[in-house]
Amino acid sequence: MSSLEGKTVLITGASSGIGKAITRSCLDHGAQTIGLCRSIKKLPREVIALECDLSCPDQIVTAFGTLTHLDILVNNAGLAYLSQITTGDPTLWQKMWQINVHALSLCSQEALKLFPKGSGHILNCSSLSGHRVPPTGGFYAATKFAVRAITESLRCELSQSRSGVRVSSISPGFVDTPLLEDYFCGREDQLAQTKREIRMLTPENVAATALHILTAPKGVEINDILMRSADQAV
Ligand SMILES: NC(=O)c1ccc[n+]([C@@H]2O[C@H](COP(=O)([O-])OP(=O)(O)OC[C@H]3O[C@@H](n4cnc5c(N)ncnc54)[C@H](OP(=O)(O)O)[C@@H]3O)[C@@H](O)[C@H]2O)c1
Q1: How many domains are there within the chain?
Q2: What is the rounded distance in angstroms from the CA atom of residue 214 to the CA atom of residue 217?
Q3: CA of 149 relative to ligand 1 center, distance in Å
Q4: Is residue 50 a contact partner of residue 107, using CB atoms and an 8 Å limit?
Q5: pLDDT in tens, the chain (234 residues)
Q6: Cβ 159 under 6 angstroms from ligand 1
Q7: CATH for 95
Q8: Which of 38, 46, 168, 176 is deepest in the core (most CB within 10 A)?
Q9: Where in the sequence is the domain holding 159, given as residue range(s)?
């Protein structure tokens, strides 16, 4: 029996990067797999597509309202812009907050309505930038520190109510995905240099760790895994 056989998993941001790799892995391990994103044409044929713009709370509620059952939510969708506190564009802060923090929280609240009594699992995609602030971390790091706080709040609320729902997060360093083009926008030389100097994690490396978390024995809750390329110093 495949490790996610019989489970229904919803992955946000399933169309690209880490979410795409987690989606592939869920399909390969027998899960009924739902992909939520805007670019649903990019999803594999076997995925149940849920078109939704996470910057619109009404669309989130409507999209989850079309579902009848869920076992696992992977809150993966995210935005990363270099936007410093001193000089950054506040509209980019707002965009990152909306997707990385607000949508993640609302998707969690909606998913809880769909989990079977006594079980369920929420996996949040955080970042090493939720554990330490790199000099260029700016507002992005603030959103990932918030993801860490929300993950822990959710864990406390759900364990105090003995819900049986597990809450986890995964905190990667650099992963080679399209997100880095936004993060390094205007600093393309620095991105090229970083890629020359360090082998980045692949989305598949992160998906393998996500699978490890999602297939932990019943009753075992892995709360966070920090992972980075062995070449990444900080
Ligand atoms: N790459 C890294 O180095 C790295 C490191 C640590 C943590 N992370 C985290 O990992 C997660 C995934 O990042 P990634 O690198 O895989 O990024 P990516 O390749 O840029 O993919 C981002 C995903 O988010 C979805 N998304 C963005 N805005 C959306 C919106 N308004 N509504 C619905 N979906 C939206 C996109 O789907 P559509 O465009 O189709 O809507 C896409 O599938 C993020 O939370 C990121 O912060 C990344």
Answers
A1: 1
A2: 9
A3: 20
A4: no
A5: 459 999 999 999 999 999 999 999 999 999 999 999 999 999 999 999 999 999 999 999 999 999 999 999 999 999 999 999 999 999 999 999 999 999 999 999 999 999 999 999 999 999 999 999 998 889 999 999 999 999 999 999 999 999 999 999 999 999 999 999 999 998 999 999 999 999 999 999 999 999 999 999 999 999 999 999 999 999
A6: no
A7: 3.40.50.720
A8: 168
A9: 8-227
pTM of the model: 0.98
Whether 2 is covered by a domain: the verdict is no
- Would residue 29 count as lying in a domain? yes
- 1, part of any domain: no
Residues with active-site annotation: 140
How many CB atoms sit inside 10 A of residue 219's CB? Answer: 7
Specify the residue for token string 């990932």.
144
Residue 234 within any structural domain of the chain: no
Atom of ligand 1 nearest to the CA of 174: 3
Q: Is 195 in the pocket of ligand 1 (CB under 6 A)?
A: no
- Residue 150's contacts (CB-CB under 8 Å, 6 or more residues apart) are 101, 104, 105, 108, 124
